[in-house]
Amino acid sequence: MGSFSIWHWLIVLLIVVMVFGTKKLKNIGSDLGGAVKGFKDGIKEGGQNPADANGAAPGQVTQETRADKNAIDVEAKQKS
Fold it and tell me: pTM here?
């Protein structure tokens, strides 16, 4: 009584298919598969440290990539 038999799972599957429809379930499955693939690619890509043409990391701001070269870089401090 603690575990479900195959008949219980088939009835649950039939109800799910009747409620959502096969097309929506197919779309959900393909979306989930694409998300898993994207996650795996992100994990694989995250371990590497690719550099751009200047030798800087992709997220790193360099003097050449700054939009305003006349801007002064300051550090904001909180009032005491």
Answer: 0.40
